[in-house]
Amino acid sequence: MDFIKSFFLLIFFSNNVISAELTDYEAEIRDILSEIKLEQGYPGISLAISYKGQVVSEQIGYANLSEQIPVDSETIFRAYSLTKGLTQILVQILVSNGDLDINSPIRNYISELPENIGEITSQQLLTHHSGIRHYRSDQEWLTFSQNHCSTAQEALSFFINEPLLSLPGTQEYYSTYGYILLSAVIEAATNRSFEDLIKEFIISPAEAPQIEMDNPGYNITQNVSTYYEPTATQFFEADNVIDGYFVAPSIDNSCKFGGGSINATPTAFTRIYNDYFSGNLTNETSTELTSRLPRRFSLSGEGLGGRSTLVAVPSENLVVVITANSRGGDLQPYAIQISELLLGNKYEL
């Protein structure tokens, strides 16, 4: 499974007690959260850390500005492209189970594809080497996000008949559309929905709380953050502005599937990765698993009403996830700062 190697100010704090391994860093972690609020200005921010089997979280700011409801550890955020990390884990599980051959042409699973698309492999989709393009603009992203999809194949018409940017396997082009196609391949290979597979093989085994596929028609919980847009936006007129933000227009991320459809708490992601790095999700030892993974890797996501980042060091069983309820800015430097704080020189090894 070598494919895994290829990719990869009014403030409220929660009262969570940080575990023994992290006790010495409680003040520093809270200071970093304060820095994010001060420097980036998001209405609400949530942080979770999984380190050596312990999961802790801290929050800052508001889930709802007008009602001044603070973010808590169970507040759900839009994670966007952090979803791709769960898709990677799911692919590994399906390959191990013999349900998916990532090196065979995807026409073996979906026959009704244009000839050039059918020759792409799941491996190439997974590592962004398929030649399928990404969104061309924010406006295209917004138009795509006005649609609802029940299956991944319903989303393919938005891009499937366009020419490839390069021959499959020759160049890397980051592509959420590629991950949507990968989701369709997964559904075809297993004859099951992407959502059901994620729940059975990842969410349930990890006992991950408060995580769901985006669907404006339902939520598993009422504790979902209000999603905001900064007044500096180029696309929307601002009404009822509070502290430089207004409520973001309604969108539907259901068509993004494995490329960006997950809404969750940071704790949900850290629990999943803790189980993954321990080998529990793939039925192998942690040493076997981490030997195939990069020394460290990161993911980031952004879209209307959300910003997210994940930084992980598998061999140390460390993952840091930060989410915010508005787009803009950059959370990754803060996640790296926390990782360096906890690991010291080991982060650079």
Strands across the major sheet, in which order? Answer: 3-2-1-11-10-9
Under the CATH scheme, the architecture of the domain at 2-79 and 224-236 and 262-347 is: 3-Layer(aba) Sandwich
Instruction: Assign the structural class, choosing from mainly alpha, mainly beta, alpha/beta, alpha+beta, or little secondary structure.
Output: alpha+beta
Care to count the β-strands? Answer: 11
Average predicted confidence as pLDDT? 91
The CATH homologous superfamily name of the domain at 2-79 and 224-236 and 262-347 equals: DD-peptidase/beta-lactamase superfamily
CATH class call of the domain at 2-79 and 224-236 and 262-347: Alpha Beta
Précis, in short:
The protein is 30% helix and 16% strand. The chain is an alpha+beta fold.
